[in-house]
Amino acid sequence: MVRNKKKSVLDNQKELKSINPEFKELEPKSLDSGNLENKNSELENSEDENSKPEELESEDLKIQEPEISKKIIRRPLVLILADGWGIASLSEANALYLADMAEAKKIISHYPSTILRSSDEPLSLRYATLGLGRELKELSEIQETDLSLGQILAQHEKKQLYLAESEKFSLLSSYFNYPAYYFDLPKFSEEIVVSSPTEDYQKNPAMSTTEIVKIALEKIKEGDYDFIAISLANIDEVAKSGDLSALREAIETVDGALQKISEAVLLKEGALLISAVAGWAEQFTDLRTNLISKEYSSNPVPFLLVAKEYGGQNIGWEDAPDGDLSLLQPLGSLSDVAPTILHLLGIKKPEAMSGKSLVE
Length: 360
Description:
360 residues, Alkaline Phosphatase, subunit A, 11 helices, 32% helix, globular
């Protein structure tokens, strides 16, 4: 089942509170969706093509002229998050090593690939760190005036798509763009939720990946979006079942999705980033006790960059010996993902983002 989900301010607050009981509701400030839509309508109807949009008067959010780099802006830029894909030494405890990841190995051998530090924080905080571009220990550290990646892209009129299964949708939308939940930006953002046919992932390791990939390929081909974020939930959701055979099938399903999506992105001369916020499958069992892991890891996660201009190129990242990412030292952290995305889209990161672009 696929549905486009447009969330109101109230819907978002209820959703966040159900996930995190300590969540504190915030009141929307002077800018609401109506204000932004009206402003955009005025700009679209302007007959003077040389006129510049005025700055929107608001203490919390201002529409500013884009600061564009000299590089060609890639469109689309696609981010795939395959949670559960962590980096650890190759062993019988590492389900990723036991599975056939031919496409991932191909990407690692031909495109810039490195690893990032994750953390031992809850997934909600890891996603917030990813979207805000700075390290977080508590959600209370986030201010109402902070701008998430989604808000910054909307300021620069970059059209966005967030695509996920229901299991990951709240993380990808609400926490990745925290605290943007109380701003509705329908002109610049679309969200598609795909419901899994069953919650017994042990019997259905593929989950709804086929439908996710189908939608992704359609949207990439249409070329209407500047930024597409995709969550592939198979690895960590199936890892929770404790079934190694099912987990290997889930991993190989994700690998097949990487092949199809990367081919589509390259055909459109876009760029693809592949990463995760947490590992699990890389330490699926404890070889000393033979017990199955029951939680996310704090191990590093992959960070792969696929784009035609980077094929076979060394951009200053250390090469993984024999394609083994576990032999690398982390080049950065989750907080560097948003600045890298902004850089690739030709947008200057705000000062509040302490993370850095990993691509110069």
